[in-house]
Automatic annotation (TrEMBL):
PANTHER family the UniProt entry points to: URIDYLATE KINASE, URIDYLATE KINASE PUMPKIN, CHLOROPLASTIC
InterPro entries noted in UniProt: AceGlu_kinase-like_sf (IPR036393), Asp/Glu/Uridylate_kinase (IPR001048), Uridylate_kinase (IPR011817), Uridylate_kinase_bac (IPR015963)
Gene3D superfamilies hit by this protein: Acetylglutamate kinase-like
Main subcellular location of this protein, as a coarse class: cytoplasm
Domain Aspartate/glutamate/uridylate kinase: 3-213
Source superkingdom: Bacteria
Name listed for the protein in its UniProt record: Uridylate kinase
Classification lineage: Bacteria, Thermotogati, Deinococcota, Deinococci, Deinococcales
Coiled-coil parts of chain: none
Molecular function in Gene Ontology: kinase activity
Length: 235
Protein backbone atom coordinates (compact mmCIF):
# COMPACT_ATOMS: atom_id res chain seq x y z
CA UNK A 1 0.00 0.00 0.00
CA UNK A 2 1.32 3.42 -0.92
CA UNK A 3 1.32 6.19 1.65
CA UNK A 4 1.62 9.25 -0.58
CA UNK A 5 1.43 9.45 -4.38
CA UNK A 6 1.14 12.03 -7.08
CA UNK A 7 -1.32 11.49 -9.91
CA UNK A 8 -0.67 13.25 -13.22
CA UNK A 9 -3.80 13.91 -15.27
CA UNK A 10 -3.98 15.35 -18.76
CA UNK A 11 -6.28 18.29 -19.30
CA UNK A 12 -7.95 16.29 -22.06
CA UNK A 13 -9.48 13.97 -19.47
CA UNK A 14 -11.90 16.81 -18.62
CA UNK A 15 -12.80 17.59 -22.22
CA UNK A 16 -15.57 16.91 -24.70
CA UNK A 17 -15.14 14.13 -27.28
CA UNK A 18 -13.21 16.52 -29.50
CA UNK A 19 -10.61 16.95 -26.76
CA UNK A 20 -11.47 20.55 -26.15
CA UNK A 21 -12.88 22.52 -23.22
CA UNK A 22 -14.20 21.42 -19.84
CA UNK A 23 -17.21 19.12 -19.85
CA UNK A 24 -18.80 18.99 -16.37
CA UNK A 25 -20.15 15.45 -16.90
CA UNK A 26 -16.79 14.09 -18.04
CA UNK A 27 -15.11 15.86 -15.13
CA UNK A 28 -17.65 14.46 -12.65
CA UNK A 29 -17.08 10.91 -13.94
CA UNK A 30 -13.33 11.26 -13.60
CA UNK A 31 -13.66 12.71 -10.10
CA UNK A 32 -15.94 9.84 -9.01
CA UNK A 33 -13.47 7.34 -10.41
CA UNK A 34 -10.56 8.85 -8.47
CA UNK A 35 -12.43 9.40 -5.21
CA UNK A 36 -14.00 5.94 -5.44
CA UNK A 37 -10.54 4.40 -5.78
CA UNK A 38 -9.19 6.45 -2.89
CA UNK A 39 -12.05 5.79 -0.47
CA UNK A 40 -11.27 3.11 2.07
CA UNK A 41 -7.51 3.55 1.67
CA UNK A 42 -5.12 5.73 3.69
CA UNK A 43 -3.32 6.94 0.57
CA UNK A 44 -2.51 10.66 0.52
CA UNK A 45 -3.10 12.02 -2.96
CA UNK A 46 -1.74 15.05 -4.77
CA UNK A 47 -2.91 15.71 -8.33
CA UNK A 48 -1.20 17.67 -11.08
CA UNK A 49 -3.52 18.59 -13.89
CA UNK A 50 -2.45 19.70 -17.36
CA UNK A 51 -4.12 22.18 -19.66
CA UNK A 52 -3.94 20.69 -23.13
CA UNK A 53 -7.76 20.78 -23.45
CA UNK A 54 -7.66 24.56 -23.27
CA UNK A 55 -4.28 25.72 -24.52
CA UNK A 56 -0.85 24.32 -25.33
CA UNK A 57 1.76 27.03 -25.51
CA UNK A 58 3.77 25.65 -28.40
CA UNK A 59 0.75 24.62 -30.49
CA UNK A 60 -1.86 27.30 -29.83
CA UNK A 61 0.48 30.23 -29.35
CA UNK A 62 2.21 30.17 -32.71
CA UNK A 63 3.31 33.65 -33.71
CA UNK A 64 3.12 34.83 -30.08
CA UNK A 65 5.90 35.51 -27.66
CA UNK A 66 6.51 31.88 -26.52
CA UNK A 67 6.73 32.80 -22.84
CA UNK A 68 3.38 34.58 -23.01
CA UNK A 69 1.86 31.59 -24.79
CA UNK A 70 3.10 29.34 -21.98
CA UNK A 71 1.71 31.63 -19.27
CA UNK A 72 -1.69 31.36 -20.96
CA UNK A 73 -1.29 27.57 -20.80
CA UNK A 74 -0.52 27.75 -17.08
CA UNK A 75 -3.68 29.76 -16.45
CA UNK A 76 -5.61 27.05 -18.31
CA UNK A 77 -4.36 24.44 -15.84
CA UNK A 78 -5.82 26.52 -12.99
CA UNK A 79 -9.24 26.46 -14.67
CA UNK A 80 -8.98 22.68 -14.88
CA UNK A 81 -7.86 22.46 -11.24
CA UNK A 82 -10.94 24.41 -10.14
CA UNK A 83 -13.27 22.23 -12.23
CA UNK A 84 -11.72 19.09 -10.77
CA UNK A 85 -11.97 20.48 -7.24
CA UNK A 86 -15.66 21.16 -7.71
CA UNK A 87 -16.25 17.64 -9.03
CA UNK A 88 -14.18 15.93 -6.31
CA UNK A 89 -15.97 17.79 -3.55
CA UNK A 90 -19.32 16.86 -5.09
CA UNK A 91 -18.02 13.28 -4.97
CA UNK A 92 -17.56 13.75 -1.22
CA UNK A 93 -13.87 14.40 -0.68
CA UNK A 94 -12.32 17.55 0.80
CA UNK A 95 -9.74 19.12 -1.51
CA UNK A 96 -7.47 22.13 -1.79
CA UNK A 97 -6.36 23.80 -4.99
CA UNK A 98 -2.89 25.32 -4.76
CA UNK A 99 -1.45 27.38 -7.57
CA UNK A 100 2.13 28.07 -8.61
CA UNK A 101 1.04 31.49 -9.87
CA UNK A 102 -0.57 33.33 -7.00
CA UNK A 103 -4.24 34.20 -7.37
CA UNK A 104 -5.58 34.55 -3.88
CA UNK A 105 -9.20 35.08 -4.88
CA UNK A 106 -9.52 31.60 -6.32
CA UNK A 107 -6.99 29.34 -4.59
CA UNK A 108 -4.16 29.08 -2.09
CA UNK A 109 -0.61 29.71 -3.23
CA UNK A 110 1.51 26.56 -3.47
CA UNK A 111 3.55 26.32 -0.29
CA UNK A 112 5.30 23.00 0.08
CA UNK A 113 4.86 22.48 3.81
CA UNK A 114 1.26 23.59 3.67
CA UNK A 115 0.58 21.14 0.84
CA UNK A 116 2.03 18.34 2.96
CA UNK A 117 -0.16 19.36 5.92
CA UNK A 118 -3.28 19.21 3.72
CA UNK A 119 -2.25 15.74 2.59
CA UNK A 120 -1.76 14.57 6.17
CA UNK A 121 -5.30 15.74 6.91
CA UNK A 122 -6.68 13.61 4.08
CA UNK A 123 -7.39 16.40 1.63
CA UNK A 124 -6.69 15.83 -2.02
CA UNK A 125 -4.27 18.56 -3.08
CA UNK A 126 -4.81 19.71 -6.67
CA UNK A 127 -1.86 21.60 -8.06
CA UNK A 128 -2.62 24.18 -10.75
CA UNK A 129 -0.44 26.61 -12.64
CA UNK A 130 2.29 24.14 -13.62
CA UNK A 131 5.70 25.11 -12.27
CA UNK A 132 4.81 28.78 -12.56
CA UNK A 133 7.50 29.11 -15.22
CA UNK A 134 7.31 28.99 -19.01
CA UNK A 135 9.15 26.46 -21.20
CA UNK A 136 7.98 23.55 -19.08
CA UNK A 137 5.04 21.18 -19.23
CA UNK A 138 2.97 19.75 -16.44
CA UNK A 139 4.96 16.49 -16.73
CA UNK A 140 7.84 18.33 -15.11
CA UNK A 141 5.47 19.76 -12.51
CA UNK A 142 4.37 16.25 -11.61
CA UNK A 143 7.96 15.11 -11.10
CA UNK A 144 9.06 18.22 -9.27
CA UNK A 145 6.14 18.32 -6.86
CA UNK A 146 6.28 14.57 -6.25
CA UNK A 147 9.90 14.96 -5.16
CA UNK A 148 9.13 18.01 -3.03
CA UNK A 149 6.26 16.49 -1.10
CA UNK A 150 7.93 13.10 -0.70
CA UNK A 151 5.54 11.12 -2.91
CA UNK A 152 6.67 7.52 -3.37
CA UNK A 153 5.72 7.45 -7.05
CA UNK A 154 4.14 9.36 -9.89
CA UNK A 155 1.08 7.65 -11.37
CA UNK A 156 1.06 8.85 -14.92
CA UNK A 157 -2.49 8.44 -16.18
CA UNK A 158 -3.22 7.61 -19.82
CA UNK A 159 -6.43 7.06 -21.73
CA UNK A 160 -6.78 3.96 -23.96
CA UNK A 161 -3.12 2.97 -23.49
CA UNK A 162 -2.42 0.61 -20.61
CA UNK A 163 1.32 1.18 -20.31
CA UNK A 164 4.48 1.63 -22.32
CA UNK A 165 4.89 -0.31 -25.58
CA UNK A 166 7.97 -1.00 -27.68
CA UNK A 167 6.28 0.87 -30.54
CA UNK A 168 3.05 2.83 -30.95
CA UNK A 169 0.19 0.30 -30.44
CA UNK A 170 -2.18 2.53 -32.41
CA UNK A 171 0.05 2.23 -35.47
CA UNK A 172 1.68 -1.18 -35.02
CA UNK A 173 -0.63 -4.15 -34.22
CA UNK A 174 2.44 -6.19 -33.15
CA UNK A 175 3.52 -3.63 -30.55
CA UNK A 176 4.50 -5.33 -27.30
CA UNK A 177 3.65 -4.00 -23.85
CA UNK A 178 6.59 -3.64 -21.48
CA UNK A 179 5.78 -4.40 -17.85
CA UNK A 180 8.92 -2.97 -16.30
CA UNK A 181 11.66 -0.64 -17.49
CA UNK A 182 14.43 1.47 -16.06
CA UNK A 183 14.43 5.22 -16.64
CA UNK A 184 17.61 4.80 -18.67
CA UNK A 185 15.96 2.22 -20.95
CA UNK A 186 13.13 4.66 -21.65
CA UNK A 187 15.67 7.32 -22.62
CA UNK A 188 17.90 5.00 -24.66
CA UNK A 189 15.05 3.32 -26.53
CA UNK A 190 13.41 6.71 -27.12
CA UNK A 191 10.12 5.43 -25.80
CA UNK A 192 7.52 8.14 -25.73
CA UNK A 193 6.40 8.21 -22.14
CA UNK A 194 6.62 11.77 -20.94
CA UNK A 195 8.46 14.99 -21.51
CA UNK A 196 12.26 14.41 -21.62
CA UNK A 197 13.00 17.01 -18.92
CA UNK A 198 10.53 15.35 -16.57
CA UNK A 199 11.93 11.89 -17.29
CA UNK A 200 15.52 12.99 -16.70
CA UNK A 201 14.54 14.47 -13.35
CA UNK A 202 12.82 11.20 -12.37
CA UNK A 203 15.96 9.30 -13.37
CA UNK A 204 18.33 11.62 -11.46
CA UNK A 205 16.28 11.40 -8.29
CA UNK A 206 15.30 7.75 -8.66
CA UNK A 207 11.57 8.48 -8.58
CA UNK A 208 9.40 5.52 -9.69
CA UNK A 209 6.78 6.12 -12.37
CA UNK A 210 3.76 4.03 -13.23
CA UNK A 211 2.17 4.50 -16.66
CA UNK A 212 -1.37 3.10 -16.74
CA UNK A 213 -4.85 3.44 -18.20
CA UNK A 214 -6.92 5.31 -15.63
CA UNK A 215 -10.21 4.47 -17.35
CA UNK A 216 -9.70 0.72 -17.18
CA UNK A 217 -11.80 -0.93 -14.48
CA UNK A 218 -10.28 -0.71 -11.01
CA UNK A 219 -6.74 0.14 -12.17
CA UNK A 220 -6.35 3.11 -9.87
CA UNK A 221 -7.66 1.31 -6.79
CA UNK A 222 -5.32 -1.59 -7.49
CA UNK A 223 -2.41 0.80 -7.86
CA UNK A 224 -3.22 2.55 -4.59
CA UNK A 225 -3.13 -0.87 -2.92
CA UNK A 226 0.33 -1.52 -4.31
CA UNK A 227 -0.65 -4.02 -7.03
CA UNK A 228 1.19 -4.08 -10.32
CA UNK A 229 -0.71 -2.31 -13.08
CA UNK A 230 0.49 -0.84 -16.36
CA UNK A 231 4.23 -0.26 -16.76
CA UNK A 232 6.55 0.38 -13.82
CA UNK A 233 9.58 2.55 -14.54
CA UNK A 234 12.25 2.59 -11.86
CA UNK A 235 16.03 2.52 -11.64
N1 LIG B 1 2.97 25.24 -18.96
C1 LIG B 1 4.10 25.99 -18.69
N2 LIG B 1 4.87 25.69 -17.58
C2 LIG B 1 4.56 24.66 -16.75
C3 LIG B 1 3.44 23.87 -17.05
C4 LIG B 1 2.65 24.16 -18.15
O1 LIG B 1 4.42 26.92 -19.41
O2 LIG B 1 5.29 24.45 -15.76
C5 LIG B 1 2.09 25.59 -20.11
C6 LIG B 1 2.59 25.11 -21.47
O3 LIG B 1 2.27 26.10 -22.44
C7 LIG B 1 1.76 23.85 -21.71
C8 LIG B 1 0.43 24.25 -21.09
O4 LIG B 1 0.80 25.02 -19.94
O5 LIG B 1 1.65 23.56 -23.09
C9 LIG B 1 -0.50 23.11 -20.71
O6 LIG B 1 0.18 22.11 -19.99
P1 LIG B 1 0.47 20.63 -20.60
O7 LIG B 1 0.75 20.75 -22.06
O8 LIG B 1 1.48 19.99 -19.74
O9 LIG B 1 -0.95 19.93 -20.39
P2 LIG B 1 -1.43 18.40 -20.65
O10 LIG B 1 -0.85 17.95 -21.96
O11 LIG B 1 -0.92 17.55 -19.53
O12 LIG B 1 -2.92 18.49 -20.64
Amino acid sequence: MFKRVLLKLSGEFLANENGFGINPDTTAQLARLIIGALDGTDVELAVVIGGGNLWRGARNGQGMDPATADYIGMLGTVMNAMALQDAMETAGRPTRVMTAIQMHAVAEPYIRRRAMRHLEKGRVVILGGGNGAPFFTTDTTATLRALEIGAEAVFYAKNMVDGVYDSDPRKNPDARKLDQLTHLEVVERRLEVMDATALTLCMDKNLPLVVFDIFQEDNLRRLFKGERVGTLIQS
